[in-house]
Write a structure and sequence with these properties.
Layout lengths: L4 E4 L2 E3 L2 E3 L4 E2 L3 E2 L4 E3 L2 E4 L3 E4 L7 H12 L6 E3 L5 H4 L2 H7 L4 E4 L3 H9 L5 E3 L5 E3 L4 E6 L9 E5 L4 E3 L22 H15 L3 H11 L6 E3 L5 E2 L3 H12 L4 E8 L5 H15 L5 E5 L5 H10 E11 L2 E2 L1 H13 L5 E8 L5 H12 L2 E2 L4 E4 L4 H20 L2
Parallel strand pairs: 8-9, 9-10, 10-11, 15-16, 18-19, 18-20, 20-22, 22-23, 22-24
Antiparallel strand pairs: 1-2, 2-7, 3-6, 4-5, 7-8, 12-13, 13-14, 14-15, 16-17, 20-21
Helix pairs in contact: 5-9, 6-7, 8-12
């Protein structure tokens, strides 16, 4: 038996928590779990807004029944087809055979492709409305935030934006569902990690989506992951605005690969010089230990980046190669970069990291440092020089 959670007198939260899955999209660690959010509008016509991941469907259906009992669902609004939200569509369709599935012209082919569903569909376009009785839904297309079919649904009387994955975050909802029921800071870093790894590549589409939302009066943002935003609406919109413009704070992420400690020693020398020169936000990561999603999240936060790698079979160390591939894939912009490398007989890491900087259009700061064998006094001094050059560059932006 479930006690229904009300957003407003007729709008209900029927989402579920997943604390068992280790990797979101089989890639990103979710030590805090993740919530899959769905909503019911109980009006003359009943509308279900998005569904949940298939493994959670039994609990999900019980929550829906707790709200509407044996009433049929008239509409299922699909804001986003990704299987962590669309996974239960087929079962919902079988349980409510007369349900009409609402989506846009890019949603409907996906419905057929994933589930073979082509009947009882309603195609909506930009600005179209759907009347449920007391409540009216309006639809706005936000393609590539972060799939091409993504849209948001706006309930006009309660002024709720059902925002699909936008403004979502990793982390289960542990009792508190609304943002005035918990400490906002608990979710801040996980929201950035979610954005940077899931949505981060699509800064321009996010900016376009924010422009559309700017024309709406919004009292609540109900995403498909994480809390329902009421008190922090302008704060989370502002975060998305900054991240999608690749705006950063003063600080440095030092990400290194090191097989026997020599490259790590170079990175630590740079880190110490940064601290001595007044840079307080320094994040030092071993790419072979820390998952790239955490490193990427901090790169989205801080302006300065130091990448350090030994040469491995005439290439970058494989774990550094993996990180730089993600950076290129995400198209991360507007950073300062310092470069460190080491080798035993033939050096290639520094050359390859400089090529990556050129591809990303990042500004290389100072002189790249490359050491043969163990770190020696002259190269140690060059590491110090690089740390000071990065600190000076960041402080010049204050």
């Amino acid at each position: 038996m479930y006690k229904p959670v009300k957003l407003t007198p007729d709008v209900y939260y029927v989402g579920v928590n997943d604390r068992r899955t280790h990797l979101f999209e089989n890639m990103w660690p979710i030590d805090r779990g993740v919530a899959y959010n769905s909503y019911v509008i109980d009006d003359e016509k009943v509308a279900l807004i998005d569904s949940v991941e298939i493994a959670q469907v039994e609990k999900y259906l019980k929550k829906i029944k707790a709200v509407i009992g044996e009433r049929p669902i008239d509409y299922l609004v699909v804001n986003h087809m990704e299987p962590d939200h669309g996974g239960s569509i087929d079962i919902i369709k079988k349980m409510y055979p007369d349900i009409q599935i609402v989506g846009n012209k890019k949603t409907l082919p996906m419905l057929e492709g994933y589930f073979g569903i082509s009947d009882n569909t309603v195609e909506v376009k930009e600005g179209d409305s759907l009347n449920l009785g007391k409540h009216t839904l309006q639809f706005y297309m936000v393609p590539m935030v972060h799939w091409p079919e993504t849209m948001v649904t706006y309930e006009t009387s309660e002024q709720i934006v059902f925002s699909a994955d936008a403004f979502g975050t990793f982390g289960t909802l542990d009792g508190g569902i609304f943002d005035d029921e918990f400490d906002f800071e608990y979710y801040r870093d996980e929201m950035r990690r979610y954005y940077s790894n899931i949505v981060g590549k699509y800064g321009s589409p996010v900016q376009k989506a924010l422009s559309k939302l700017a024309g709406l009066d919004i009292k609540m943002i109900a995403s498909t992951h994480g809390p329902i935003w009421k008190n922090h609406i302008q704060k989370v919109i502002g975060m998305y605005d900054r991240w999608s413009k690749f705006e950063t704070e003063e600080g440095v992420v030092l990400a290194y690969a090191s097989m026997y400690g020599n490259t790590e020693e170079m990175a630590e020398a740079v880190a110490r010089e940064l601290a001595e020169n007044g840079i307080k936000h320094i994040r030092l990561y071993d790419v072979s230990k820390t998952h790239a999603s955490y490193i990427l999240s901090d790169i989205f936060k801080y302006k300065g980046v130091i990448l350090a790698s030994p040469t491995y079979c005439n290439e970058l160390h494989p774990n550094m190669e993996s990180l730089t591939t993600k950076l290129r894939h995400m198209g991360v912009k507007n950073h300062y970069l310092g470069i460190l490398g080491s080798y035993s007989w033939a050096g290639a890491a520094v050359k390859k990291l400089n090529a990556i900087a050129e591809e990303l259009k990042w500004e290389v700061v100072g002189e790249s440092v490359e050491e043969k064998h163990a770190l020696k006094a002259d190269k140690y001094q060059e590491c110090i020089n690089l740390g000071k050059a990065m600190a000076d560059k960041l402080k010049a932006d204050r």
